[in-house]
Amino acid sequence: MPMYEFGCPNCGVLTTELCRMGENGEMMTCLECGHEGLLKHISGFSSLGASGGSGGRSCLPGCRGNCTGCH
Ligand SMILES: [Zn+2]
């Protein structure tokens, strides 16, 4: 199964999930803030946002999107 990263548009936390082909994040809920409807990213394509800071890399558990002490 392919792995996808789902990014929360509300708090920016990325979640990596195994899922079926074609599945998107519309039915997923953010583990951090509970926002419904995540945005799918292709796993391994970690250059999203390049040097923009937040959003390009997975956050540690407990990160609320501000990434303080995270990365
Ligand atoms: Zn969130």
Q: Topology, pairings included?
A:
Elements: E1 3-7, E2 14-18, E3 39-42
Antiparallel strand pairs: 1-2, 1-3
Zinc ion (ZN) binds at residues 8, 10-11, 13, 30, 32-33, 35.
Structure in words:
The protein has a domain at 3-42. Helix content is 0%, strand content 20%. The chain has no helices and 3 strands. The protein has strands at 3-7, 14-18, 39-42. A hairpin with a 6-residue loop joins strand 1 (3-7) and strand 2 (14-18). It is globular. Residues 8, 10-11, 13, 30, 32-33, 35 line the site of zinc ion.
List the defining traits of the structure above.
single chain; mainly beta; three-stranded antiparallel beta sheet; binds zinc ion
Element string (H = helix, E = strand) = EEE
pLDDT average, as an integer? 74
Strand content: 15-25%
**Helical proportion, percent range:** under 10%
- Radius of gyration, in Å, reads 12 Å
Placed side by side, the strands forming the largest sheet appear as 2-1-3
Tell me the distance between the termini.
28 Å
Short description:
By secondary structure, the protein is mostly beta strands.
